[in-house]
Known about the structure:
The protein is mostly helical. The chain has 4 helices and no strands. The N and C termini lie far apart (66 Å).
Amino acid sequence: xxxxxxxxxxxxxxxxxxxxxxxxxxxxxxxxxxxxxxxxxxxxxxxxxxxxxxxxxxxxxxxxxxxxxxxxxxxxxxxxxxxxxxxxxxxxxxxxxxxxxxxxxxxxxxxxxxxxxx
Length: 118
């Protein structure tokens, strides 16, 4: 492309480049800080709804991983160690002992997935 020649839309290459720079600067000023577009711009309820649909679709198509109870317990144990610093003992931040928390987790898992192993 030759410089300083008129193009189809009028103006030289330099004029188009300058217009592009100005547009980019205006866009950068407008989006300073958090640019909440797309998924990040949705409210939490909408994000949860969409994520739930994705999970349901993955399970329906057979692409989602099915945890057995031993794997779920191991993952929960590792997550608890990571978030609470290992064997904490005594009362947790939300009250109750780690044994009570474990029992609550077991009951919740049984309620949502049934009591048998997969």
